[in-house]
Structures are given as structure tokens and as C-alpha cells.
Write a structure and sequence with these properties.
GO terms for molecular function: manganese ion binding; oxalate oxidase activity. It is a single chain. This protein is of the alpha+beta class. Among the domains are: 119 residues, Jelly Rolls; 33 residues, no CATH class. The strands form two sheets. The chain has a five-stranded antiparallel β-sheet, with no helix packed on it. A four-stranded antiparallel β-sheet has the order 3-8-5-6, with no helix packed on it. Bound molecules: 2-acetamido-2-deoxy-beta-D-glucopyranose (NAG). The site of 2-acetamido-2-deoxy-beta-D-glucopyranose (NAG) has 4 residues, from loops. 2-acetamido-2-deoxy-beta-D-glucopyranose binds next to loops.
């Protein structure tokens, strides 16, 4: 009898799952073997139009975009070199991309989020503190060393801080050809047109002079 009840439960769960709305956790699957992006295409769609198959060549599936270190001589001591679809057209429709990030000693990849992808971080050199915050403002973080991994769930705000003594390098792999990036500091202090002062003073519980001082620091960006 207990087992009959169990079977009924199983059937109900299976039915519930089968009829649930389709949950898509990454870019939609491609409909053909490949669709090398025609970056000059003028068609507006979700992604890029495909190059005609006859003009696709071996090198369309190759990228040397991440061979060289980015120049970290900026106030944050960070440089991300992206091999997303715009730099690597062979990724079009494949639902993945990769970024190389170089960090100077003490360098910070400031808190940011990727609206369209989870991020798998692989540290290649140095010691990097990777942290992300969940919707409940719980901070999860860990110092990640060479050949170790950390995963940042899709859309959550995260940072990478070089806590080692030398330079650090990590690769970030994404389940989207174009993960997108939102850096809250920039999207508050260096928007065009400017965010209304009243929004900023009320958001940060600061007066106009304090906000203006902050905005000056972000003006170059
Ligand atoms: C990142 O490095 C590249 C290559 O050295 C450089 O052209 C670019 O200006 C750097 N970006 C930043 C934000 O420093």
C-alpha cells in the first residue's frame, strides 16, 4: 500500500515537472552545426546572422584574443580581455564565451554582475579572493589559488580581488555568447545622461557635496 502511494506521488511529480513552463538556463540551443557571426550583418535579431556556410574557414573557430596580458595600469589594477561573440564570431549561437582577467597586486575587479550567464572562475596564476552576494545579501567568498575553481551563479553581484603578492590571472567561462556586464558604481555615477542627483542622495543617504565628490572620481569612466 505504501508503495502504491509512492507510485502515485511519483506520477504526480512527473506530471508537474512535465507541464511546468520550460526553464531555459543558458542561451537557446543552436538549430544548425554552426552559425559563424557576420558581425557586419544589419539584420536585427537576438544574436548575429550567420556567414554563408561556403565562406566559413578554419580560423573562424580560432581566437588568439587572450594570449596577451591586458594593461592593468588603471585605478582598479584590472584588465579583462573578452573573447565573447563580438571578438570571436565562431561563438555565435553556441551559448558560451570566455574572458581573461589580469590583476595587478592588490588589483580589484569591482563588484559587477552578468545578466545572461553564470561564471566559472579558473585561477591560472596567483591568489584571488572571489566573492558574490546572494539575494539575501549573504556574502559567499573564498581565496582561490592556481588551478582552483569558483562558480558565480547567473546574475549575482561578484568581485575578484588579488590578495597575493604578485600579479594574478584568471579565466572566466560563461554559459552565454555575450554575458553582458553591469557595474553598479558606473551605472550610478557615470551614466549618460547623468542619474538625477536626488536619486543618488536618497540612495546613499548622503548630501549633494558627498555625491559630487564621488561622481568626480568616476567622471573619467
Ligand atoms: C586593457 O589592456 C589593453 C591592452 O593592453 C589596453 O588597450 C586597454 O586600454 C586596457 N584597458 C583598461 C581599462 O585599462
Amino acid at each position: 500500500m505504501a508503495s502504491a502511494r509512492y507510485v502515485t506521488l511519483q506520477v504526480l511529480v512527473t506530471l508537474a515537472l512535465a507541464t511546468a513552463p520550460w526553464v531555459v538556463l543558458s542561451d537557446p540551443p543552436p538549430l544548425q552545426d554552426f552559425c559563424v557571426a557576420d558581425l557586419t550583418g544589419t539584420t536585427s535579431l537576438d544574436g548575429f546572422p550567420c556567414k554563408p556556410a561556403a565562406s566559413v574557414v578554419d580560423d573562424d573557430f580560432f581566437s588568439g584574443a587572450m594570449i596577451s596580458a591586458g594593461d592593468t595600469g588603471n585605478p582598479f589594477g584590472v584588465n579583462s580581455t573578452r573573447a565573447t561573440v563580438s571578438a570571436f564570431p565562431g561563438l555565435n549561437t553556441l551559448g558560451l564565451s570566455i574572458t581573461r582577467t589580469d590583476l595587478a597586486p592588490g588589483g580589484l575587479n569591482p563588484p559587477h554582475s552578468h545578466p545572461r550567464a553564470s561564471e566559472l572562475v579558473l585561477v591560472l596564476k596567483g591568489e584571488v579572493m572571489v566573492g558574490f552576494t546572494s539575494g539575501l545579501n549573504r556574502l559567499y567568498s573564498k581565496v582561490v589559488k592556481e588551478n582552483e575553481l569558483y562558480v558565480v551563479p547567473r546574475g549575482l553581484q561578484h568581485f575578484q580581488l588579488n590578495v597575493g603578492t604578485g600579479d594574478a590571472v584568471f579565466m572566466a567561462m560563461f554559459d552565454a555568447q555575450s554575458p553582458g556586464v553591469i557595474v553598479p558604481t558606473f551605472s550610478l555615477f557615470s551614466t549618460k545622461p547623468a542619474m538625477p542627483m536626488e536619486v543618488l542622495t536618497k540612495t546613499f543617504l548622503m548630501d549633494e557635496d558627498e555625491i559630487s565628490a564621488l561622481k568626480t572620481k568616476f567622471a573619467p569612466f
